[in-house]
Amino acid sequence: MDGTRHCCRMAVSAAAARNKVAMICGELMKKYLFFGIIVSLTAVLAGCGAHKVLAPPYQGVMLPPIPISVVLPPDSPISAADVSVARLTQEQALSQERAPSDLPDEFAFIEGFVLEPLATRFTTPARVRIEPEIDLPAGTRLFLFWVGSSRHGTAIDESPVQADGSVTFDTPTFGFFIVAENTLIPRPSDQFIVFGYTDIIEGAIPLTAHFRAVPAGGSPPYTFTWDFGDGSESASGETTAHTYLEAGEYHVSVEANDAYGRSATGSFTPIVATTEYTELSSVGIDAFPIDPGEPLRCGFFPSITGGVPPFTYEWSFGDGDTSADPQPEHLYPDYGLYQVHLTVTDAVDDSADAERVIDLRSVKLDAAPTFGSVPLEVTFTITIQGADPQASATLHFGDGNSAAVNPTAPTPVSHTYGDTGTYSAQLELTEQFGGEVFTKRSTPIALVALPPPVPYIYSIHPTQAAAGDAVSIYGQDFGIYHEDVDRVVFTPSLDAEILEWGDTIIRVIVPEGAEDGDVYVARGIYESNRHHFNVIEPGSEPQPPVIGLISPQKGPPGTQVAILGANFGDAQLPTDRVMLNNLDLEVLSWADTQIQAVIPSFAEDGDIVVYHQDLASNGYFFDVGVFPSSPPPVIISIDPVEGSPGTSVSIVGVGFGEPGADSMAFLGTTPMVTIVWSDTQILAAVPTGGGDGEIRVLRGGYFSNAFAFKVIPSPPNIGGLQQL
After folding, report:
1. Beta strands in 567-657 (DSSP E)
2. Separation of alpha carbons 147 and 571, rounded Å
């Protein structure tokens, strides 16, 4: 392991974990495990004991313990002591709805875990190594998804299971993750098989036959057990021989076992032992690879029917070389198709001939990337060796499209997958040789195209600012890191300078020349909803009021709503009012950034507008209907009670409800970055740019009670660390 990296192994035991349990209304609170400062820890997370397809709604399964280790990058601003793990139980997964809701049905849930500090990302990835309890064959492809607050799963990495059962992923951030398997991609080691060869099919007793076993798949070293079908003792070894002393028909089999205990059985055409010699009637050729590292080295076995031993052999390998060995090995000079010829002569000068074409052409296909969101553009790299100039090669993309390839001078081919799904791409090489058509195909490559993430803006804080000021945009599915094509656009079509970029919060500089109007986030070709923003002149007054958020955003007449924004004024003036269409709302409280009001009788769907000093705000749509009401949320405790921007704060209470656009946690008047939200617990990060204040929860138009929180200075920024 690289000595410049911090290595942290995290472990949870009943004695080491601090379980915080509170009984609220007879319900068990969620449990989170936090860990102290130790150099080498082992974290026990929840794993999955059953292979279950993950389809909306999430079908939870209880997860058995799994060990996990994390290697931080060399430029990490945090040490191993700062890393902790929150355990995800089945109850928490179901209640928090943190499993992705938009992954295709072919994905099966394997593991779920949370790595903290949740608001930290790196300029170079952290490395996470997991050892699932599930018995997954080596080579099985697993996918790592980062799950945002909207339950959209963002593919972070994919990696094969290693021979020791572990899998390693790279992640640019901490947060909530699931590990999933795509069940449409075959598990390679599930096809462990063994082939058996013999040089004698039929002959007179005493009949001596030679055998050879050739395994395919599995993991070496291998062991072999032979059953000769005549009741004699079994034999072991890759090659063996056996003499039959009585006439009869014998069914031979060989059982192979690999290094991990997987077994496979191969059987033969029955061996016929006769009492008298018969005429040499036929001979066949079996060919097999000797060593995967030497693809041009082949082994050959004859299969003789009848005749009088001893036999002589004349092999011609099709490249000018010959051999007289009974079971020769031969190294070919180059890739290609070769016509092998064998003549076998017995002791009475009877002879028989056989021919076989050996296909030693090499057809390989590589692809990058092999997964991602649609539109997924994949570049295929093609390697063809041993093809005739007259051959034809075709690349099949697996979506009904294909492309012709030059078989003697292939060049990279690009293809874009526009629809979500799992595709199997394969290269096919076809040519004529000796009057026959021979086709060779590459190993298929599985390509996974996932649903596209569509960003959504909940609010902008502050709701108005001057050009050059920094503002925070809150929402979901912005992406956990910033790509060159990602933008924040102000009216009139001006790109903002990006200060920080996270999946739920973006900090930008209001561009020069920006005007009052819509702001939106563009993630590649996908654009968010539009959100109104006022651009002000420094020191100019008065400014029109601006509504940034209304909670709740729907409800029947009589519903209490919280209107959040700016420039409402410190107190309601005689001419100030809040209106829904042509009806006034009853105002319960009025402050510069927040108004509490009640939806009037006979109200209909429409825009809520705030009027202050004869200036009208932007309109914010409210859906009038019959919806169930909820009591105000209540905070019981927060932990910790102080921290720097980015610190994760656990807010425990009741009545928080389900996560939604009109449910937020605030430090003072600044929204916090929500990481996990359930009815009884919220995990949120201290916002950047705020100061000391009170933490409150907003839900359904009602604010909870408040708990004081102290903001302490952030540590120095090391290695380009960015906070989400």
Report:
1. 577-580, 583-584, 586-590, 594-598, 606-612, 615-616, 620-624, 634-639, 642-643, 648-654
2. 42
Segment 120-145, tens digit of pLDDT: 556 667 788 887 767 787 888 999 98
Is 421:395 a contact under the CB 8 Å cutoff?
no
DSSP states of 411-431 as a string? --EEEEE-S-EEEEEEEEEEE
Q: What is the pLDDT of residues 79-116, one digit of tens each?
A: 666 666 665 654 555 555 556 666 778 888 787 777 76
Q: How far apart are CA 321 and CA 694, in angstroms?
A: 87
**First-to-last CA distance in the chain?**
29
For residues 417 and 423, give the distance between their C-alpha atoms in angstroms, rounded to a whole number: 9
> What's the pLDDT at 108?
84
Residue ranges and CATH numbers for the domains of the chain are 6-185 (2.60.220), 192-270 (2.60.40.10), 362-450 (2.60.40.10), 456-536 (2.60.40.10), 546-624 (2.60.40.10), 634-711 (2.60.40.10)
Nearest residue to 239 (alpha-carbon basis) of 261, 263, 215 = 215
DSSP per-residue string spanning 635-654 = EEEEE-SEE-TT-EEEEEEE
Give yes or no for residue 370 having a pLDDT over 80: yes
Phi/psi at 191 (5° precision): -105, 35
Contact status, residue 63 vs residue 49, Cβ threshold 8 Å: yes
User: Which H or E run includes 394?
Assistant: strand 392-396
| Degrees, nearest 5: CA angle 312-316-318 | 170
> What mean pLDDT is predicted for residues 505-525?
92
Q: How far apart are CA 377 and CA 368, in angstroms?
A: 9
Residue 282: Cβ within 10 Å count: 15
CA distance 125 to 75: 10
